[in-house]
Amino acid sequence: MSTALEQVEKTAQLSKNNQMSLMIFQVQFPKENYTPAYYGMNVFKVREVLEARAYEVSEVPDSNSLIEGMIELRGVYLPVIDLPKWMGFEMTEEEREKSIIIVSDFSHNFVGLRVSHIHGVEEKNWSDIHAAGNYNVNVNTNQIVNHTYLQNSDTLCFILDIEKLLIEAMPTMAEKIFASAKDVSKVDYVFRDEVYDKTILFAEDSKSIQKYMGMVFDQLGLKYVCFDNGRLLLDYIAKLPTLNDISMVFTDLEMPVASGHTVIREIRSSPVTKNMPIIVHTSMTSENNSREVLDMGANYFIGKVDTDLIVETIKKVEKDFEGWISQ
After folding, report:
1. pTM higher than 0.85
2. Contact, 69 vs 56, CB < 8 A?
3. pLDDT in tens, 215-233
4. Which of 30, 33, 118, 287 is 20 to 30 A from 304, comparing alpha carbons?
């Protein structure tokens, strides 16, 4: 089996066990008596790691200040985001020469993230990933969505809200996304009365994506309840006296405490909820990831911030799950 296939198989197995591989990095270089903070992102979003000195960054006129420019990677041009700058730090030219560019895939948007150093990869249980809190350290908590600890250590590792970064770094893209959410009601979408009467549940830990999805559902006139992680959604379902008022569940995959994989597995394992429609809404949009969650029991798999696809999927639920919607 090739190395790439082995990595896909390993990642799939980790996901099914409510685990993930976390690539850990720093955005500052160490200085005397100062150790920079550690940050992490799911390895599944990482496509490759580049030595920055090997790639010339071409400036893009009139781009956001967080976009350094573009690099060419095997004939494809990728924007490079100044991650240290977003975090409130500045790299010297000498440090940029020694830095690393992480090529990442978020909902089929390929970007380069500049970092100072790759610490390594650690496997984590999602129960070890905790919601962001107040930290007595020199980090901007507005950009942190979760945290964990380095292996065999009490050293914090912060997980960044990359969706928030992309929205801030690419305002034109963000404007189109939120405009599509605002405009959706202007299109003649009409659902059955039962869809309006029932409630959509969705689990999502990114505040930016929560805001976006809330706008879409509000514009469509649909009722919804949002949860910051999968466990809160599952606990809410468990306390309901009846499921007659629930139309469907949207879930992200990457969440603290309980991932989207856990949401799928627990909903499908209960005779009460086993027929509930589940839509995975994620930035981890590889074909292998799609196949994996559909095999686990999700009914639909869609990339994040695609308003037309969200509406189209709700229509599919209405048609494919007529018995559930009508109950």
Report:
1. no
2. no
3. 999 999 999 999 999 999 9
4. 118
